Amino acid sequence: MFLTLYYLLALVIILTVHEAAHAWVANRLGDPTAQRAGRVSLNPMRHLSLIGTLMLFIAGIGWGKPVPVNPRNFKNPLRDQALTAFAGPAANLVMAVLAAIPLSYLPAVPSLDWVFFLCEAILNLSLVLFVFNMLPVPPLDGSKFLAVFVPKRFLRQYLYFLEEGMPYFIAFIMIDLYFLTKILGFSIVWTAVSTVTFWLKAAILVVV
């Protein structure tokens, strides 16, 4: 229960920064939609989704309020939308690196235990969200970021995939969590995410 409180606080911080980063980059690239909606903010109440938060406890998958973006306001819609999508995971990766610094350099004294617990939670959750969100499937950020690398002859089909692919991904996640896990003994998605997260965390701790 004690450590859970730190993870809940870390989750609020991480989701807030993630969504605010989307909004800030979109505004900088010429789309003021999110800024007008008050999303260029570090106020958690502007970014947290009630349903997304509840789903975190029910299904193990949560999300914040989607940041409104109007690609028509971008000078280069495909590129700028990709950069806006990448901004959230990139912010999580930066947070992970920053959280790793106290873990590596602060002395291990009881008075600083709360710093270690919170930084450990931020480091772990930031990396999980970074890796998960960079999966190249809609509605995750990685699918939008990948669009900029898709050859032009396949771009139309890929954009259609971005628009129509979300229900299939959600269905696969539910099947993976509730059926494949029972059959195989493990979750395909979370095994992949946790493996990449483990090695990424190890690399960050070595570097800092």
Beta fraction: under 5%
- Chain-averaged pLDDT: 88
Number of strands: 0
Give the ordered list of helices and strands: HHHHHHHHH
Q: Helicity, in percent?
A: over 70%
- Rg, Å, rounded: 18 Å
Describe this structure in words.
With 208 residues, the protein is mainly alpha-helical. Helices cover 71% and strands 0% of the residues. The model has no long low-confidence stretch (mean pLDDT 88).
Entry summary:
The protein has helices at residues 2-28, 33-36, 50-58, 77-105, 113-133, 141-146, 152-164, 166-184, 188-207.
Write a concise keyword list for the protein shown above:
single chain, 208 residues, mainly alpha, 0% strand, globular
Question: What topology does this entry show?
Answer:
Blueprint: H1 2-28, H2 33-36, H3 50-58, H4 77-105, H5 113-133, H6 141-146, H7 152-164, H8 166-184, H9 188-207
